[in-house]
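> call design_seq(struct)
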């Protein structure tokens, strides 16, 4: 059964990856699989003669959805994305990646626990329950990942401020 694509409304900010560059604009694949067009006039405030000066294939960009064309395809803009929105969306994107990594790790830990339980039933010796040290180590790892995430967000914000202000 095909799942309907996510409906985007105008003025939403999304993260996407440049998939193709043409003389009239760039095609951007968004996270949900939809493709939108950033017209050459929506790349920068100044006149853009060569779009490849501003964008490259496989570059990750934050775009603003500005509407849909007659065919229902997304019209996107780069120049309408403020520096604050770019930083905010990038930060939330990194948080999503960390949350996903933690969600993937939890089932793996549950599976290891189940395997230990099965082995303990097969062997005469008693299983060793997870120690506080192993749980503490896992919590510490997650905390360090989050601290690193915050550091990267702050350094990225400083970099953007130097570049754009």
């Amino acid at each position: 059964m095909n799942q309907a694509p996510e409906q985007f409304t105008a003025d939403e900010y999304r993260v996407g990856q440049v998939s193709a560059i043409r003389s009239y604009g760039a095609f951007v694949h968004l996270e949900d699989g939809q493709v939108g067009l950033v017209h050459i006039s929506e790349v920068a405030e100044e006149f853009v003669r060569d779009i490849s000066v501003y964008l490259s294939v496989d570059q990750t960009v934050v775009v603003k959805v500005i509407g849909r064309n007659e065919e229902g395809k997304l019209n996107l803009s780069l120049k309408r994305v403020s520096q604050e929105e770019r930083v905010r969306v990038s930060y939330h994107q990194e948080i999503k990646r960390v949350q996903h990594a933690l969600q993937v790790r939890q089932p793996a830990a549950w599976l290891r626990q189940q395997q230990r339980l099965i082995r303990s039933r097969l062997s005469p010796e008693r299983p060793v329950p997870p120690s506080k040290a192993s749980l503490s180590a896992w919590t510490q790892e997650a905390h360090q990942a989050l601290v690193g995430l915050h550091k990267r967000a702050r350094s990225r914000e400083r970099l953007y401020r130097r570049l754009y202000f």
